[in-house]
Task: structure prediction
Amino acid sequence: MLRVRDSMTREVITLGPEASAAEAWSLCQELGIRHLPIVEGGRLVGLVSDRDLRDVSPPRGSGGERDTLGWVRLRDIMSTDLVTIAPLDTIEHAAREIYDRKIGCLPVVADGELVGIITSSDMMRTLVELVGAHGIGSWVEVEVPNRPGMLADVTDVIRDRQVNIAGVFLAPAPRASNRLIVLRLETTNPAGTVQSLEEAGYKVTAVKASVPVEPTLEEA
Result:
């Protein structure tokens, strides 16, 4: 089971509440980050986003941008009603919080201290890793009856083809009595596997290679 600690960013850039908006904006631009936790006395007291900083900036080209951001203190613009998460909470919990609350990140707190941050970008990276989409391969979608044991039966066919499964997830099928098993296979030409699945009586509804198929990579 994946925990927040497995996906969070541990080296967190922070500022104090008396730092200026100009300093925060400079860090965001220089490091390519969108959220800055605000820490005081070792405790998390707020959060500033790049949107907060843009909101207090004068219109571009109007002059005085640097001066304005220089006198604005983060204490005055930071969000203090924070939603946090613990490092041992599940990734599923973190994803649900970010989605339901329509927020961009969750500070990770343990024993009252900031130990990391997990962002929507971290969640997307984790999703890519979970489904195996970071490497070459193919997607194969199989429609099966919605009953116990079907996933094991389908993966048995693929095992017999000696093809590695990089990722798998389930989805509803157009017919309510069925479901879709979507598999990420470590082959760029799954033709042999698709044939074996169809010969075993399964309905393959979609096949897509993530890279151009080369004849030399054809599955035996």
Summary: The chain has a mean pLDDT of 87. The radius of gyration is 24 Å. The first strand starts at residue 35 and ends at 40.
